[in-house]
Amino acid sequence: MLNQIAASEDLVFFRPHQFLTRENERPDALFDIVEGWACRHRLLSDGRRQITALYLPGDLCDPLWSLTSTCNEPVVALTNIRATRRTLNVADGYILDRQKGFSTRLAESVERQSNWLVSLGRKTAVERLAHLLLELFERMRRAGLAYGQQCALPLTQMDIADATGLTAVHVNRTLQSMRSKGVLELHSKWLRIPDLGALRDLAALGPNDAV
Amino acid sequence: MLNQIAASEDLVFFRPHQFLTRENERPDALFDIVEGWACRHRLLSDGRRQITALYLPGDLCDPLWSLTSTCNEPVVALTNIRATRRTLNVADGYILDRQKGFSTRLAESVERQSNWLVSLGRKTAVERLAHLLLELFERMRRAGLAYGQQCALPLTQMDIADATGLTAVHVNRTLQSMRSKGVLELHSKWLRIPDLGALRDLAALGPNDAV
DNA sequence: CCAGTGAGTTAGCTTATGTTAGCGTCGGGA
DNA sequence: TCCCGACGCTAACATAAGCTAACTCACTGG
């Protein structure tokens, strides 16, 4: 009944659009991203796409879905990626990890997914963008990859659109207007947030919400 | 490091709008709903509400959030509720349950949340409603609470709106149009689906999607 | 018996966001 | 060097969904 993380740790590489994991595959390993970004997404038959999770350097990918036996959402690289592949021993669907903050990451995943649900269900374009960029900046900061108020943000506007449930065109429009109001700068895959507080206000976060 | 479900099992009751769990409380127990419906939701400062999970008879509430130390979304009763309260031993954030299909329920929660994300992010009103009603019917069926093509559905149109990220008015409009097309009947908290296949088509589900 | 409340319904109008199309720039590959 | 495809950007127009408000119909409680 007791499970362990096996010792196996391969270093692996991916290019943009490459799959880290595929649909309908039993996940037997988790990727610990060392460098680069990835996402989990779902494609509808007519081409609509929804990104359901973003993975940044330092992220485990994916604690949540490792709990399921088969997964119907692939994980794809958004940039070049360097990662370590950690195989798991899974018995009876229970997962136990004694060495790293696995359960902490799990809890974060749960909370993030929930935040996204609220965002997609009830927030305006400005609020969604503010929320997303804030979240990403904060995660980069915690990963030690932010420099002052700035960090890398290697997403295309279409990626952002598919994460926020908007269109690329509308993302562009909305970003322009936010730029012109001075609450953020974003060009050539680089994000700067002059005033964290102002952006936080725009994000319509509750008093208890993290980020 | 080994945790157990303690023996404690109290029978508890709730009335509509009563809290099963509150915000910012450390969850030390899970509710097993015997009868009635509940939901988890988030309230924005201006009154907007998003339901992030629905709990039906037979559901555990909530496997996902029991993984976090404190939770920022309350669970409230939507109807009269009878439930058994199961206290947990939680050590270091890990949860282990040897007696019931806890991990199966966990996996289902993860998948449902993900489905909802796609729905809220990328689907039209008709698709969202078809998807939600289909999911609820299927869950009722599996709980042994469906009778042929029918089941109870004790949600108000506003509840449905807050689950699907729409307005009550628009839910009403859309339901009307679906009714007039004969793909569903819904009155006095009772749902009938004359043609499961037709509704499935409207829901824009992928080939791998459950429900 | 009536007043009050919550729910469903419908209509008219408004608006945020989607759609389509086109332009310019950049960088990589042949 | 020259394509060619991604990407960012913009404008004009289309539409799904939001907003407000009113009316009805149960129910419930006094």
Set down the secondary structure blueprint.
Two copies of one chain form a homodimer.
Chain A (H helix, E strand, L loop, with lengths): L4 E10 L4 E3 L7 E7 L2 E6 L5 E7 L4 E2 L13 E3 L3 E8 L13 H21 L2 H18 L3 E2 L2 E3 L4 H8 L3 H13 L4 E3 L2 E3 L3 H7 L9
Antiparallel strand pairs in A: 1-8, 2-7, 3-6, 3-8, 4-5, 4-7, 9-10, 10-12, 11-12
Helix pairs in contact in A: 2-5, 3-4
Chain B binds a DNA duplex (30 and 30 nucleotides) through helix 4.
Structure characterization notes:
Two copies of one chain form a homodimer. A four-stranded antiparallel β-sheet of chain A has the order 1-8-3-6, with no helix packed on it. In chain A, helix 2 packs across helix 5 and helix 3 packs across helix 4. The N and C termini of chain A lie far apart (36 Å). By secondary structure, chain A is an alpha+beta fold. Chain A is globular. Chain A has helices at residues 102-122, 125-142, 157-164, 168-180, 196-202, and strands at 5-14, 19-21, 29-35, 38-43, 49-55, 60-61, 75-77, 81-88, 146-147, 150-152, 185-187, 190-192. Chain A has two domains: 5-104, Jelly Rolls (Sandwich), CATH 2.60.120; 124-202, Winged helix-like DNA-binding domain superfamily/Winged helix DNA-binding domain (Arc Repressor Mutant, subunit A, Orthogonal Bundle). At the A-B interface, strand 5 and helix 1 of A face strand 5 and helix 1 of B. Chain B binds a DNA duplex (30 and 30 nucleotides) through residues 124-125, 156-158, 166-170, 172-174, 176, 187.
